[in-house]
Amino acid sequence: MSKTNPRFMALFLELFESLPRQGPGSRACAERALRLCRELPPVPRILDLGCGTGAQTLYLAELTAGSILAIDSHAPSIERLRQTLAERGLSRRAKAQVGDMAQLELPTASFDLIWSEGALYNIGIEMALPICLELLRPGGYLAFTDAVWRRENPPEEVRAAFEQEGVTLGWAAEVAAAITQGGFELLDHFTLPDAAWWDDFYTPMLARIEAMRHQYANDREALTILDEIAKEPEMHRHYANYYGYEFFVARRR
Q1: pLDDT tens-digit profile of 32-48?
Q2: What is the pLDDT of residues 48-58, one digit of tens each?
Q3: Pairing assessment for the beta strands 136-149 and 243-252 based on DSSP bridges
Q4: Which CATH number applies to 26-193+242-252: 1.10.3720.10, 3.30.450.20, 3.40.50.150, 1.10.760.10?
Q5: Is 47 in contact with 113 (CB distance < 8 Å)?
């Protein structure tokens, strides 16, 4: 079923907004990436692009003493993050706002760290890198994850799934080259471990899908949609060796 179908999107958002996070990642991966940002100021200014409901925003608040601006285009996700920040007493240090990462109206050279987990692909790395370069102060850091191929000749099922999502995967070396050509020094990159896919993302997703199957037990269309969504974690279970998420950390020259 097409994701342009309003019912599909309604159920998709109902499901994804209830999850601990909306894509692969973990606190341990965030810590590892932050350790590469060795010369951050004591109280860095941080921009979290494509924050979703803010799992990584909360990690950044725990792991740094910085001020954080979290931006996402989906208003309900921002509202949920604002509530979470208020509940945790973080509203003075971390702000969440609705915005389009392709059209940010923010001062140039105003951030020490730009962070983005699984979101820059929405506008493409080629467009995202100049935007980040402009917003970072000289010597500022960029940390982001991106989906990449890990093996040649992936099964047609895998390739078709990404094409249906409108996602064009490259290779880690290609992303690294784009980073260095875009005015950054690539500090390092690493592949997210399998636990970063399952612990806080796919395992809660499958549990939530099962709960929603009971909730919509008499709704054939909803059950069909839930079956379609459930194909993603099952594909990863079988074909994770063909693709993955890579965490890139770079610095503005």
Answers
A1: 999 999 999 999 999 99
A2: 999 999 999 99
A3: antiparallel
A4: 3.40.50.150
A5: yes
